[in-house]
Design brief:
By secondary structure, the protein is α+β, with helices and mostly antiparallel strands. Helices cover about 25% and strands about 25% of the residues. The chain contains 19 helices and 35 strands. The strands form seven sheets. The protein has a seven-stranded mixed sheet.
Length: about 650
């Protein structure tokens, strides 16, 4: 069992800084925390970090058993990865035995390690290692693990049973023969075959699956296969200053600083099988053209005469494009992992979301100006419900054929025909749309940035990514603006535990995903603290009232927050809600909370004076389009961005507190 601890000077510095930020910790809390940590320290230290351990490192475990693992040890030694396996940190290693490695050599027409280039060997090593996380089999769920290997690929887990109990497979072909071997710096699962994820692109992988031959024919005929073929931005170079800071292990504002090393693209295809098409009377491309024309010409009559199927406004082109998303979304990254953002949610059941309330995510598709809604359904404990129509309950769901991997994407089979209709558009435009800031940016998912690392009390915090100008297409920032992203942290009272964080004399624009036409009250979710700045906010280039002082706490008279229940004349806080609205503010929603009450407390964000919504104004959107949220610092400091809300005026009359 490993126990992580911070050194005491770092601990005190963190608490002092937090107090200055207005988070509300007391010195008694600091003393208690120090007293709690002191007895656990021992002489086994690396630098200023203290921890206790039992057993060997992952590297030592492999090296000390040459009769079983010498071949993989040779790969690790040759590539220099063995040093990592002996280093301080957290690693999950899927360890192939000698027989598995020798079989792998033969399958590639090779006889030994000498027949492979160093780059290939390094990829083999990286395919078997997940860095920064120890993932035990008790945390396995069928499908992709949400943490990528060091080679940037997802590990596919299969779970079945036999007379001996549960059986785990990895990437379909490899069986875990010995599980959950605890090492000093990680956990080891012995596997029967070398992991060798496909190097084929999403288009190539779909083309080889005969169950989806009709969809693939349409994908090629429309030319949309070219739109999902990108792999990596070869011109991207990480900022060397931040790489240096990252390599020093400096902890910056409660999180490890990271800089994206690559800028990868990713795509998801939601596809009907040939069998599903057949059940709906669609047997060939002509049938599919006719189906698409009937569906989309109703919604876009002005384009009904476009017969060129490579035209983005053609009905078949729209049909296929609506199935494609420019994010690589394994099954659990549609919504489940953002709903369960705590690092340890699998074992503790603790999450940022309030589990009596459904949660929603919105995905932009390659069909111009369209969204897919993904939701939870608490009544049946379901995730990944697509475009559910509340009145009828009609929806699209994934089948058991999900998480089909490719180098630059993933595809899933769906249980019925996915089409954008007037009914779907009406559903989207007549409800409150709450959008986490991270949902605007495909780069966060495609580069393994969005999922958090928080392990409260254990010394491992969320990662703080520095995002250089140009890395995120929808963020345009001035040279004086530092753009960072905190991924999910158990200590943050944030909608999904994460936040966009900017500092300096900031001046930036963020472009949203498309919003349906309608008249909306638009709101900005944030948290005020003592180190924030003062900012002028703009919506589509128009100032949204006077500058917002992000240092002003909710209980300030200018905002007027009162805890619901403290006024006997207003037990639910509804009258106070009205008074706050008159000043341009709202309490946080009652739909989410914080897992670890280090800085924030309360049964929900509504019950915390540290969480606010600023009403930006009422706006009429005449057509589907993206919009620009701009911020310019009036007084430098911090700026945090949690989410945006778009609330149709007719919904305001009966909007709930969630």
């Amino acid at each position: 069992m490993k126990i992580y601890k911070m050194n005491l000077s770092d601990l005190c510095n963190r608490f002092i800084t937090v107090r200055l930020q207005g988070k509300g910790l007391t010195w008694s809390a600091i003393v208690l925390a120090v007293l709690f940590l002191l007895p656990a320290c021992n002489s086994d230290d690396v630098g200023d970090n203290f921890y206790t351990f039992t057993g060997e490192t992952v590297g030592q475990y492999i090296k000390n058993r040459p009769e079983t693992y010498s071949e993989f040890a040779h790969i690790l030694d040759t590539t220099g990865v063995m040093g990592l396996m002996n280093a301080y940190g957290d690693y999950t290693c899927f360890l192939p035995d000698n027989e598995a490695v020798i079989r792998f050599y033969k399958s590639k027409g090779k006889t030994s390690i000498k027949d492979f280039s160093l780059d290939v060997l390094k990829k083999i090593a990286y395919d078997h290692i997940i860095k920064d996380f120890t993932i035990a089999t008790e945390d396995f769920i069928e499908g992709f693990l949400t943490k990528q290997t060091m080679s940037g690929r997802y590990v596919d887990i299969g779970i079945s049973s036999d007379e001996t109990g549960l059986v785990y497979t990895v990437n379909t072909t490899s069986k875990i023969t010995e599980k959950d071997i605890e090492a000093h710096n990680g956990i080891i699962h012995v596997i029967s075959e070398v992991l060798s994820p496909t190097e084929n692109t999403l288009v190539e992988v779909i083309s080889a699956d005969q169950d989806f031959s009709l969809f693939f024919e349409a994908l090629q005929a429309t030319g949309l296969d070219k739109n999902i073929s990108l792999i990596k931005d070869e011109d991207y170079v990480p900022d060397p200053d931040y790489v240096t800071r990252e390599n020093t292990g400096v902890v910056y504002n409660y999180a490890r600083v990271r800089v994206p090393r690559e800028r990868k693209y990713g795509f998801t295809a939601l596809m009907e099988s040939n069998e599903t098409f057949k059940k709906n009377g669609i047997n060939n491309l002509d049938d599919l053209k006719a189906y698409a024309k009937q569906a989309y010409d109703k919604l876009y009559p002005q384009d009904a005469s476009i017969s060129d199927i490579t035209n983005r406004n053609n009905s078949l082109n729209r049909f296929v494009a609506y199935h494609l998303i420019n994010k690589k979304l394994p099954m659990r990254l549609f919504i489940e992992k953002y709903d369960n953002t705590g690092m340890n949610y699998e074992s503790t059941g603790e999450t940022h979301s309030v589990k009596v309330v459904d949660m929603f995510e919105y995905l932009e598709t390659l069909c111009p100006n369209t969204l897919i809604e993904v939701r939870t359904l608490r009544t049946t404990n379901e995730y990944n419900i697509f475009n559910m129509i509340p009145e009828s309950g009609k929806a699209i769901r994934l089948t058991a054929n999900f998480d089909n991997d490719a180098l630059n994407g993933v595809y899933h089979e769906i249980d019925n025909i996915l089409v954008y209709t007037a009914e779907v558009e009406r559903m989207l435009s007549t409800k409150r749309l709450r959008m986490d800031v991270a949902s605007f940016f495909p780069e966060f998912v495609n580069n393994n940035i969005r999922i958090g690392n928080s392990r409260v009390g254990g010394g491992l915090y969320s990662e703080r990514y520095y995002l250089p100008n140009g890395f995120v297409d929808r963020i345009k920032a001035s040279a004086s603006t530092e753009v960072h992203y905190f991924n999910a942290d158990d200590r943050f009272m944030d909608y999904q535990g994460d936040e966009l964080f900017l500092s300096g004399l900031y001046d930036f624009d963020i472009t949203t995903i498309p919003i349906p036409p309608g008249t909306y009250e638009v709101r900005f979710g944030y948290q005020p603290t003592g180190l924030r700045g003062v900012a002028q906010l703009y919506w589509d280039g128009i100032p949204t009232g006077i500058p917002l002082d992000l240092r002003t706490l909710a209980n300030d008279p200018d905002i007027g927050y009162q805890y619901p229940g403290t006024d006997t004349r207003d037990p639910e806080g509804f009258e106070n809600d009205k008074a706050m609205r008159n000043r341009g503010y709202m309490k946080g929603p009652a739909s989410y909370t914080v897992i670890a009450e280090w800085w924030y407390t309360g049964a929900s964000a509504r019950m915390s004076e540290d969480v606010l919504r600023r009403i930006l104004g009422i706006y009429t959107f005449n057509e589907w389009s993206t919009h620009t949220f701009s911020v310019k610092a009036v007084k430098s400091g911090e700026f945090m961005f949690d989410y945006l809300e778009f609330v149709p005026l007719e919904v305001l009359e009966y909007e709930d507190i969630y």
